[in-house]
Amino acid sequence: MRISNPHDIVSYLTKTRRKAIINRMLIWVRAHPVISGLIAVLLLALLYKVIVPSTPDYEYITEPVTRGEVARIVSASGKLRALNTIKVGSEISGQVTDVYVDFNSPVTAGQVLARIDPTRIEARVTQARAQVELARANLAQAEASIIRAQTDYAVQSREYQRQKELAEKGFVSKAGIDQAQNVLATSQAALSTAKAQAQSGRAQIAQSTAELSSAQLDLNRTRIVAPTSGVVINKLVEPGTTVAASFQTPNLFEIAADTSRMQVEASVDEADIGQVRVGQTVRFTVDSYPDDTFVAKVGQIRKSATEAQNVVSYLVILDVDNKDGKLLTGMTANVEIVTGTKANVLRVPASAIRFRPRKDDRPEEDKVDSAEQKPGQKRPTTIWVTTDDPYEPVRRVVTIGLVGEDYVEILKGVKEKEKVLIRTKNLQNADDDEDDFDSENQ
Question: Phi then psi for 361, rounded to 5 degrees?
Fold first, then answer.
């Protein structure tokens, strides 16, 4: 073939080179069929990957906007206590000989709970009674001495008058008058001594009587009695136990005066105590009855703070009705104090206002990192609402009202029955739910 045009010459050479390359490739493919097949499969897979989009390995879980109740709750924990717990102790020392009650025994006021060995106290009573009798005998002797001294004083007074009259007539000397006067003074002194001894005897009787009363009181105290009616919730003594009341009164029993009324001592964090008010409704559960919810009222807020591991809390006393007797002292109560409620309001799950979809699913204007937010600028409250494409949600700025533990009141921004995103579900593992709370973590 004859070619005269330079451009045709270039075109001819290009076609010839292309055919040569194709021929060499065909020869190589025929020589290496297995490798050629693998390369072809790989190329087809890459082409399929580029042309056909992959299915996401996650999906968004949604809930509709509904109407209902929103409750703001303060959570705390505490212990159940009897409304009036009385500790019964002993004011005397000795060995316990008898115990008449046990745990959970109902008792009435004045009932004997235990007895302490009275032998030593009875000896004291006997000795004190003997001292009283001795003091009374001494008083009787002193009173007899008074009568004798009064008689003697009267005789000596008359004798002195006679001697004085005789001395005036000159029949008695001056010495006789002095002697009569001295005898009269002696009888008067004896009368005063007898009266003083009688007064001392009466004082001894009073002292001995007081010692007898003290001994009898201690003897009565060997009988440990219930000061009020109730139930024995704790017993700290057994027969044979030695009680020592030298420095402080030892506790022997604890009596719950009235178990139909109880109280919960709940510790509330300082961040939440400002929301708690006397009279607020409280719901709580105990581990013994996990399916039952008990109701109480806030009865008192203690103003004294308690600090443990740098955490400051305040004691809140809750009044509990326990007429059925299911609640026992010492149970742990999981408390929810209802600090605010609103009924029949537009609401969304609380997780909806914290959730952020993945950045790839957001509009470009919503992918800005929060670090670019100006200092002091309040971040608007937003939620994400579904569209026809489940992976292209739209952002809504909303106005919220009461914030509860499970739901948040929505005043403006969404409509009822619209579906809002609350979390992400990983489709690769059905048991693994992934919550995206902030765009910075995406």
Answer: -95, 5
